[in-house]
Amino acid sequence: MKILLTNDDGIQAIGLHAIRRALLEVPGVELAVIAPDSNRSATARSITTRTPLWVEELELDDGTTAHATDGTPVDCVRFAALGLIEFEPELIVSGINHGFNLGDDITYSGTVAAALEGVVLGIPAIAVSQQADRGRVDFREGKGWSAADFEEGARFVARLVEEIEHVPMPRGTLLNVNCPAGDIAGVRSCKLGKRIYRDRLELAEEADGRKRYRIYGDDPGYHDEPGTDFAAIAQGLIAVTPLHFDLTDEAGVEELSGFELDRLLRPAASEV
Known about the structure:
This protein has helices spanning 14-24, 73-81, 110-120, 151-162, 229-234, 250-256, and strands spanning 2-6, 30-36, 55-59, 65-69, 91-98, 125-130, 173-179, 186-189, 195-196, 202-207, 210-214, 221-222, 237-244. With 272 residues, it is an alpha/beta fold.
């Protein structure tokens, strides 16, 4: 199994190296690492189109090598697909992210975006996220991360990779994995939940005629609904959510087809 490992927290992130070590222990795995050279959290599916990208090859503490780039997580996957490494990836693993990617958060997540790029390219993918603070169900990174925080999640994903040929994973689908802090009570397949964001506009300072604002709150909630990733995490379970890239509202297409869209090509005055 040829695997590309990437993330959005950067090449030095503890979570990246926790999963890297776990994957290297899986028999038959050939692993390449391409990651941003610094934190690119919440960059979603952004790509770098207006400037060339720097890439540096680094030697890691165990003697293996990795590539660091000033690009985004999606750029990292594109690099692998376009030949930067010696093989074509058969699986993308993105993470382990420092903080959850649950519910609506996935639309902002660079971690999930890298896995989605695998889906776009026809490569199976797994996005992995972890929370360090017990009882907290949000996207914040937590405090005082250590390698031990990622051990159980890394072991689970390594086993998932080992069994990937037997895991029900339709073509065009990625698995979004979120691991709670503390002891793991089990694993659940679940749907995305719904966030409650508590953002507000707050003036931070004024200088030279400009105003500087904070607009993102850091205490989000969620709708308490059975069967969601939020519910699984609240029960101490690893949440595994299959995601795909087709955003089409099929029912909406059907309903819209009954509206005379061609009429909008005519000037409004002609309708009088």
